[in-house]
Design brief:
The protein is of the alpha+beta class. The chain has helices at 4-23, 26-32, 49-57, and strands at 33-40, 46-48, 63-75, 78-88, 94-106, 109-119.
Length: 120
């Protein structure tokens, strides 16, 4: 059975992740990514932790980023978060995508171990 306290923590971490992407808050990711984090980009490339944080530190090209249809699956010390994103592209047109993040509880703290992003 899912632990309501853990689910709330994961909801807050997911909200923090989206807010940090929008705000180019590299420090948030320094604190919340596992050392072995890998990101799967929409262009099918993989990005290790340091490269991901370096990219995030640059101003985001999108605005109004938010997550919808957030689904959290808690599997013991692993959690999978899936959601849809909506945002405005630099030219003002609407953009959307989906992501899947895998979180792991290590030493009593949740850390994001991997992420996979798609865009429509």
């Amino acid at each position: 059975m899912n632990n309501p306290g853990e689910l709330q923590t994961l909801r807050e971490l997911n909200e923090g992740y989206i807010a940090a992407v929008q705000a180019s808050d590299a420090g948030w990711f320094e604190r919340h990514l596992a050392d072995d984090f890998v990101n799967g980009n929409p262009d099918c490339t993989l990005e290790e932790r340091a490269a991901f944080i370096e990219r995030i530190a640059r101003p985001s090209p999108v605005s109004g980023l938010r997550a919808e249809d957030v689904r959290i699956q808690l599997l013991g010390e692993v959690a999978i978060i899936r959601a849809r994103t909506v945002y405005a592209k630099p030219d003002g047109t609407a953009g959307a995508g989906r992501y899947t993040d895998v979180w792991t509880c290590r030493g009593g703290h949740w850390l994001c171990a991997c992420a996979d992003v798609t865009r429509l």
